[in-house]
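hiii, so i know i said id send this last week but things got crazy w the move. better late than never?? heres the sequnce for the chain we talked about at the cafe, plus the structure i predicted for it. fair warning i was half asleep when i ran it
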Amino acid sequence: MTKGANDIIIASDSRGEVDIIAEDGEVYHNFIRRLGNYFAKAVPDGILIFDKQGNPIRKFDTDTGGYLMDANSSDDGNLLGMSFNIGRAQQGNLGGNRLALTDGKKVSYINSNYLVEGMTVCDDGRMLWFDRPDEANMKAIKVAEMRLDGTIRSEIIDGYKFENLHRGSFDCNDQSAMFFYSEEEQTYRIKVNGVFSENNSTEVLGEELPWEEQAFDGFFVYNGRYYEVSDTGKLRGRGTHSASDDIQVQLDIGGDRAFMASRFGKWLLVNHFPREGSDKKYITVFDIDNPSCRSERRTISFNDSPLIESKGKEMGVRLMLASVVPVGAPTVTCKNWR
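okay and structure toks below
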């Protein structure tokens, strides 16, 4: 859960005390995600499945080189998709992607010559994403789907340049998708109807306001909305079908800075800390369906842990928190916290 010379998995008890339970080679931009009854993360040569004690269960060698771009579990937590930068640059792009989909027992993967967007993993065994067509200078976006058995299909959405697309998602329950598209210094929210139909169509849901500074890992899709968490703790949900579904609420993090935010089912874990004068780090869990419902704030004894300090000196780096996952179901309370 920290970045440095190696990636380290740390367990924290109910008092916030920490312990190092596993250590692996470094992976850029790593995440821990739930996978069935276990957890998963990237390792330099693939994907590692492990239990809550940090014990390895299974490893898939995917020849990905340790540069993770994105990782998303399905809503039920039984499937995991990962996107790796494998550095195969094409036509000025930063590099290619290798996308992997696993249920913890087997894995399927596919390569793209470009860095993809909007990777979405569905409960029914599908992973979907936006890609760039291979035809040079084509003003179009490719939508692609891979199933756990390795079956692939794709379709073209005409009229949009892939380079102008950023972020997006697919609806696992119907043939629709949504992405953000920038043109002439303005950003639009675009809905796609009939994604995998030759007669697919698009509609503009609305113009977007400038993006605020975001918490790390603070973008996710849940229950028909595309959410972002700002560093001030503002939770903004954009409707993926209609702008009338938009919401915006302020999460109660006591004026702290939201450093990181991760979704697990209906729960949103926010890692936050005071903006000035303290090395303390806290985690608060919110119910996305009712953000006024939250857990007690938990302190993580990270920066002042002798164990972490000693490990950092051993590795010659300052360790930092990079991903947090709950081991059990969080407890939240709906009450007036003020």
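btw The helical segments are 306-315. thought thatd interest u
miss u guys!!
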